[in-house]
Amino acid sequence: MTEQQTIEEFLSALSSKQPVPGGGGASALAGALGTALGLMVGNLTVGKKKYAQAEEEVLSMMGRLAEMQKDMVRLADEDGKVFAPLAAAYGLPSGTEEEKSYKVQVMEENLLAASLVPVRVMESAVEILDILDVMEQKGSVMAVSDVGVAVQFARTAVTGAVMNVYINTKSMKDRQKAQEINDRAAKTLEQGVKQADTIYDRVLKRLKGN
Q1: Could you read off the pLDDT of 38-79 as tens digits, one per residue?
Q2: 4 lies in a domain?
Q3: Which of 43, 138, 144, 151 has the most beta carbons within 10 angstroms of its beta carbon?
Q4: How many domains does the chain have?
Q5: Which domain covers residue 87, as residue numbers?
Q6: Residue 84 is assigned to a structural domain of this protein
Q7: Residue range 192-207: average pLDDT?
Q8: What is d(CA 171, CA 40) in angstroms, rounded to the nearest whole number?
Q9: Average pLDDT taken over every residue of the chain
């Protein structure tokens, strides 16, 4: 499991020719890194007299970030679990009509599963951005740059995962279902990028003293 790997072990696996982990797992881990930085900002905020008025809300946000971190690590693992059978399905025989029919069925099931996991990564990343929005406004001014970095990690989770959605829905036979998933992903992509860029721009202005 990803949470049991060292950074070096994960990078080695990601660098190899094995099918997993891949871009989907890496996108989810980017989101997890965003939560970790958000938690750091929270830890630098709570207990300080200057931020006493916001402490209760910051603590609440930290609780949510901790849960989102677990969720992102779990999704990184799940991405690998759903992709492995899809990779295997490509190698199924298709010499007879019966074999072709079975292969199409198996492919369709696995393509659907492999499309939905990255959608959930995207939606979780948007939730992380909601929390980081609060952290940027109410967290320690000494850590505002870390909020900006966290936002970019969450943004990467959104923009990275969407490519895993599209590459799988592209091969689905059920075009109506594929379009439903694509529409869901496109809406989340637009929302996530807009929100991330808005927060990031605020951070940049604060850092530059504008």
Answers
A1: 999 999 999 999 999 999 999 999 999 999 999 999 999 999
A2: no
A3: 151
A4: 1
A5: 19-208
A6: yes
A7: 97
A8: 41
A9: 94
Residue of 142, 113, 139 lying closest to 42 (CA atoms):
139
What is the distance between the terminal CA atoms of the chain, rounded to a whole angstrom? 44
What pLDDT, on a 0 to 100 scale, did the predictor assign at position 203? Answer: 97
Check: CB of residue 92 under 8 Å from CB of residue 99: yes
* Residue 96, pLDDT above cutoff 90: no
Q: State the Cα–Cα distance between residues 30 and 23, nearest whole angstrom.
A: 10
Cα–Cα dist 207/138, whole Å: 15
CA dihedral 129, 13, 92, 74 (to 10 degrees): -40
**Residue 90 belongs to some domain of the structure:** yes
Look up residue 56 and give its amino acid.
Answer: E
pLDDT in tens, 113-168: 999 999 999 999 999 999 999 999 999 999 999 999 999 999 999 999 999 999 99
Residue 89 — very low, low, confident or very high, per pLDDT cuts 50/70/90? confident
Q: Which two tokens stand for residue 66?
A: 């901790």
State the CATH number of the domain containing residue 186.
1.20.120.680
Sequence-separated (6 or more) residues with CB below 8 Å from residue 28: 72, 73, 75, 76, 79, 121, 157, 161
CA distance 91 to 28: 27
d(CA 44, CA 119): 32
